[in-house]
Amino acid sequence: MAENNLSNKIRRLRFDNGEITQQQLADKVGVTRQTIIAIEAGKYAPSLPLAFRIAQTFKVPIEAVFKYQDEET
Amino acid sequence: MNRAQKISLTMVITFSLGLFLGIILIVMRCFDVGVPKIAFLFPVFIAGSGGIISITCFKKDKGDIIFDERDKLIEKNANLAGFGAVYLYVIVMSFLPIGILGEEASIPVTWCPVLLIGAGFCQAFAQSIAILIQYGRRDKDGGE
Q: What ipTM does this complex have?
């Protein structure tokens, strides 16, 4: 999948929230572990509902998880 | 590696092998080595064995969730790649006989179902490659 301009702090948040594994997070948000791996690595931009589910899992606003980096900035 | 990746990898390997053997047989036939027509069924069988292996060997993935939005997107793009490949195949196969045999030549009607089988293989091959490319290599994913 193509690289995207979306950076994220999922890895950091996973460790800050009891060191939950990628599999546990995947089960909580309803996706496969491969998808979590791809999102963490910035290889896949999740859909808006999935991004919100991830943020809700960590009990933080969506902008605390994902950050859009414009190419010009 | 999930089930779709395993199936795609098997398909790519068997199709490549079948294609390679098919090319060898065609070349041998061109040089009048004495290859019987029935021998051409062998590469077709090799190529088709990918589907049989996939159905019998690869069981469903473990875990509650085996298919999500990313898989759906990859499948959609792969289908599109397969369609594009068949479209290209039809264009090439429509003009190739004219280029090779000439304008005045004729081909047996039994070629038509063979071309159809070829289109099926072409679609599955392109789809498998597209799936493998989109999922990427496992060791680069950084899984834990």
A: 0.83
